[in-house]
Amino acid sequence: MKRQNLADHILARLEQEQDSIMEAYSKSKDSIGHFMIDNLFPEEIAKSIYKSFPKLKSMKKRKDLREFKYVAAQMNQYDPILEETVYAFQDERIVSFIQGVCGLDSLYPDEHLYAGGISSMRQNNFLNPHIDNSHDKDRHKWRVFNLLYYVTPKWEMDFGGNLEIWPLGVKNEQTTILSKFNRLVIMATHDASWHSVSPVTHDGVRCCVSNYYFSDSPSKPHEQFHVTSFRGRPNQIIRDLFLRFDATLRMGVRMLFSKGIVKTDHLYKK
Questions:
Q1: How far apart are CA 178 and CA 158, in angstroms?
Q2: 3-256: CATH architecture
Q3: Pairing of strands 117-121, 142-150
Q4: Whose CA is closest to 166, among 260, 232, 251?
Q5: Domain boundaries along the sequence of the chain
Q6: Per-residue pLDDT tens over the stretch 141-180
Q7: DSSP letters of 5-23?
Q8: How much is the pTM?
């Protein structure tokens, strides 16, 4: 299962669903443009990807008021199928397809996996509402798409760990997208694309392969640089105040130091 063969499967499904992709993206692009593809790979391949996910103890734990999850980007430390899968989504044919159906002038994958790679979430893990950092690691290109491929078999809605998008902001109702086995979700990222992951309530692990695409121009006109910014959920009033202050503080730091003070370690260092 080399990346080109995996990319062949991805491209075939995208082409099969081209009309539904264009319709879904067209309907949602004025808020948070998104679409999804089910049964991305043959089932045996998808199960092999899932079985190759590492134990949580070998991944980096990220735990604070913003999030609680496990991530990894140094892909050569894990089963080779995971690296092949991650980079299959960076095949130039797939990037070109997404660029075309979404009407972008430019689109680039991220070989460094800045904030990409793989992630796992177990019971009580969560990801609060947030917008992603607007740029790549060097602040040369704009982050415009988030690709999330879910691989945990038999994952159900009431297990939690599902993608939530907040098209009208975090004080209004969210749309929940099931983290369904063998499902790919692609969503636009910009300064209003608030999204989150519901707390995991199930005694199991929800696994995800993630990529970001970048462009020479932002998703929305007049968008300006911003850091990853978190909010509290509607019922988390105190946490929301703290996270808004935290975002303001970190944004102030980045205005003084364009690449930040602490160097990110969420990269694939080849």
A1: 9
A2: Sandwich (2.60)
A3: unpaired
A4: 232
A5: 3-256
A6: 999 999 999 999 999 999 999 999 999 999 999 999 999 9
A7: HHHHHHHHHHHHTHHHHHH
A8: 0.96
